[in-house]
Amino acid sequence: MSGELSPIDKAKFVAAKRSVDYVEDGMRVGLGTGSTAAWMVRCLGELVREDGLKIKGVPTSTRTAELAREVGIEVISLDEAKWLDLTIDGADEFDGDLSLIKGGGGALLQEKIVATASDQMIVIADIGKEVETLGAFPLPVELIPFGWQTTQALIEETLISMDVLGRNSTLRMNGPRPFITDEGNYILDLHLNRIGEPRQLAMVLNQMPGVVENGLFIDICDSVIVGFGDGRVEVRDINAGTVEESRLDFLEDDNLFSDLSE
Ligand SMILES: O=C(CO)[C@H](O)[C@H](O)COP(=O)(O)O
């Protein structure tokens, strides 16, 4: 069954599988969005159903909320939880400082709010997400629909003075219509190619009227669990400065694996 998954999917799966080792009874856990996070939610659901793990989950999107309920995780709102022990989420890119680009799935706003309200954020990613410098992946920026083209023009003009290589942007579409986020906003994808000063760019973007949030996560992620296509997993902890390696045996997880690949 595992042979049906691509090396990237295997890498995502092993990272997701390893991450649930960090979840303990009684925790309030932020549940990320995206394909890697979805596997983490399914792995957690299995622990809840089969091992009696007791947790409360705060999802970062309606998609994740549906999946969490489906697999048996108790879902509560962030306001009910108030504060979280741990958030586990995917990323589109991560660098050596564990700065991230997120929002490929359009859920960056809730993801940033939830991760910031957590004692710890663990990112789960395949090795292909690691970069030396952020920016090859288009940077998602969530915009208020009102006057979005004016906001886009302002952003592109401001980018002239920023340390980036490209500065054109595209409105994210869902077929013939703009993609709409869970909060009813638009996503503008910035094609920057290289972001020299992510911290500065994140601050500048968030000061613009019409911008709700940007997909740069700076000083939010504590560790990244990197999965490889051959089953290897690395846990990189930015605070401890450690890298811990392990390997996951695919065969042991065939049932879950086959569920996930459907
Ligand atoms: O930020 C995200 C959603 O807004 C995702 O975590 C990110 O796009 C990674 O997705 P995937 O795990 O499917 O590669």
Side by side, the strands of the main sheet go 3-2-1-4-7-15-16-17
Order of helices and strands: HEHEHEHEEEHEEHEEEEHEEEEEH
Class based on secondary structure composition and strand pairing: alpha/beta
Question: Unreliable stretches, pLDDT < 50, 5 or more residues?
Answer: none
CATH top level class name of the largest domain: Alpha Beta
Distinct ligand kinds: ribulose-5-phosphate
What is the helix content? 25-40%
Averaged pLDDT = 94
Q: How many strand units?
A: 17
Name the assembly state: single chain
Please explain how this structure is put together:
α1 (7-19) crosses α2. The longest helix has 17 residues, at 35-51. An eight-stranded mixed sheet has the order 3-2-1-4-7-15-16-17, sandwiched between helices. Strands 9-12-8-13 form a four-stranded antiparallel sheet. The protein is globular, with a radius of gyration of 18 Å. The protein has helices spanning 7-19, 35-51, 62-70, 78-81, 108-116, 148-158, 198-206, 254-260; strands spanning 28-31, 56-59, 74-75, 86-89, 93-94, 100-101, 121-126, 139-143, 168-171, 173-174, 177-178, 186-191, 211-214, 216-217, 223-227, 232-237, 242-247. Helix content is 30%, strand content 25%. It has 262 residues and is of the alpha/beta class. Ribulose-5-phosphate (5RP) is lined by residues 32-37, 89-92, 102-108, 111. Residues 32-37, 89-92, 102-108, 111 line the site of ribulose-5-phosphate. Keywords: Isomerase. Catalyzes the reversible conversion of ribose-5-phosphate to ribulose 5-phosphate.
